[in-house]
Amino acid sequence: MLAGTFSIVAYDQAAGLCGVAVSSRMPAIGALSVFAHAESGAIATQALINPLLGVDGLELLRSHPAEQALHRVLARDPGADARQVAMVDRFGRAAAHTGSETHPWSGHRVGNGYAVAGNILVDGGTVDAMAERFEATAEAPLAERLLAALEAGQGAGGDRRGKQSACLFVHHGHPYPYLDLRVDDHADPVTELRRLYDVAKRELLPFVHALPTRARPAGEFDQLLNLD
């Protein structure tokens, strides 16, 4: 599936969180391109999407740095020249690949703890704006930083074909995600993703913080149950 897309992957070592934010002019981009687990890292696979790069990449990131994991998954893929992949490992080491057959504008930027990538974009200003915004919001929670970077990318032009879907996914090391928000078909998906995130901050994340974990199997629901 060909997907003109812009995305960011990142790992917050201090918080033990990793995540992906992505938007595209195709429906339900989050269903096929987003892979993250705090015990491994985070991956976005796009352009001529190969979800196996995300599945296999996460497994490799458990024991390999991002650059090596990326090299290994691409070496197994006969269509690597048509792929775009961004990944970051649990130590904040990032790597990215933009194949020679991806549609212009296409490219990526790699920084400390993150990578941004995009293809079929208006121009390179999209990934530049994403990197700049992510670095400028270093004191904010990871979910906020990812979403802010996505908003900056959309503001700088985004997918040159238009808008349709967006996703924000954050993982904290438990068997379930910390945050998994998707806008699968919308005229302004990044704006809608911001609205959903604001709702989730108020109404969902307090519940997620109280959920059972392996270390506290009963959860911590008492405070929630005492709310009026």
UniProtKB/TrEMBL annotation:
| Cited InterPro entries | DUF1028, Ntn_hydrolases_N
Instruction: State the Gene3D superfamilies in the record.
Output: Glutamine Phosphoribosylpyrophosphate, subunit 1, domain 1 (3.60.20.10)
Q: What is this protein called?
A: Uncharacterized conserved protein, Ntn-hydrolase superfamily
* Native source organism of the sequence: Saccharopolyspora shandongensis
Query: One GO molecular-function annotation for this sequence?
Result: hydrolase activity
Q: Does the keyword Hydrolase apply?
A: yes
Keywords, in A-Z order: Hydrolase
Its taxonomic placement starts with: Bacteria, Bacillati, Actinomycetota, Actinomycetes, Pseudonocardiales
Q: Would the keyword Methyltransferase be found if you checked this record's keyword annotation?
A: no
